[in-house]
């Protein structure tokens, strides 16, 4: 069985190229040539992506806004004033004593409410 050498074969023309010099320097200073550019890319990327994230949340805030109680109920300037005496007389005019309880037909298989 043949034993393969640990080093790859590289022709003599490879020694003077930029990748060859980078590979040699990378072996001597791995953090400066690999780790530092990676960390710098992560930090600068976060600074460049912050405005994009802000735009996303600003767009969401434009869609969802806090409403006052009147806006929520749909009451505008044309709402009618409520007079307690008027509402009292409206209720007094109704016949509230003569009413009849009506039972609603249940769906098949629905619980009757009696235990």
From TrEMBL:
Signal peptide, first to last residue: none
Keywords, ordered alphabetically: Membrane, Mitochondrion, Mitochondrion inner membrane, Transmembrane, Transmembrane helix
Residues that span the membrane, as ranges: 31-55
UniProt topology in membrane: Single-pass membrane protein
UniProt keyword annotation of Mitochondrion present: yes
GO BP annotation list: mitochondrial respiratory chain complex IV assembly
InterPro entries: Cyt_c_Oxase_assmbl_COX16 (IPR020164)
Highest taxon listed in the record's lineage: Eukaryota
Localization terms from the record: Mitochondrion inner membrane
Family named by the database record: Belongs to the COX16 family.
Function: Required for the assembly of the mitochondrial respiratory chain complex IV (CIV), also known as cytochrome c oxidase. May participate in merging the COX1 and COX2 assembly lines.
Protein known as: Cytochrome c oxidase assembly protein COX16, mitochondrial
Organism: Aureobasidium subglaciale (strain EXF-2481) (Aureobasidium pullulans var. subglaciale)
């Amino acid at each position: 069985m043949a034993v393969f050498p640990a080093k790859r074969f590289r022709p003599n023309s490879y020694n003077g190229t930029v990748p060859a010099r980078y590979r040699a320097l990378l072996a001597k200073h791995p953090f400066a040539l690999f780790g530092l550019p990676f960390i710098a890319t992560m930090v600068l990327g976060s600074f460049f992506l912050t405005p994009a994230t802000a735009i996303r949340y600003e767009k969401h805030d434009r869609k969802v806004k806090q409403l006052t109680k009147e806006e929520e109920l749909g009451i505008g300037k044309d709402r009618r004033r409520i007079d307690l005496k008027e509402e009292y007389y409206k209720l007094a005019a109704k016949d509230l004593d003569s009413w009849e309880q009506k039972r609603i037909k249940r769906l098949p298989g629905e619980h009757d409410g009696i235990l």
